[in-house]
Specification:
about 100 residues; alpha+beta; four-stranded antiparallel beta sheet; 3 helices; about 30% strand
């Protein structure tokens, strides 16, 4: 079974309180899906070619199906509601090799 990944690049980040609330809710929502944070929001990012230096997050799941299910879960939808409209991000769910 191939692993699943969330790859998220934040173009704009809302206020600190909003992000903190989102992170707490998201961690709780993703735990039951066996998520592992591989790249945290505070990690260094070096952009090359057409890349942009943006806050980047990578989360690993045991399977692509788990990654999809986590995004569709009711608890994660609550985390997204907390995130609100003050954040713009490029969010992708990818299947590992």
């Amino acid at each position: 079974m191939k692993k699943g990944y969330w790859i998220v690049a934040y173009r704009t980040v809302g206020d600190e309180a909003t992000m903190k609330s989102y992170v707490e809710l998201a961690r709780a929502a993703l735990g039951p899906f066996g998520s592992r944070l591989l790249v945290s929001p505070g990690s260094a990012v070096t952009a090359h070619e057409a890349g942009l230096k943006q806050v980047t997050v990578v989360v690993e799941f045991d399977s692509y199906e788990d990654a999809l299910a986590a995004y569709e879960s009711e608890d994660y939808k609550k985390a997204l509601d907390a995130l609100g409209s003050g954040v713009e991000r490029d969010f992708r769910i990818a299947e590992g090799a």
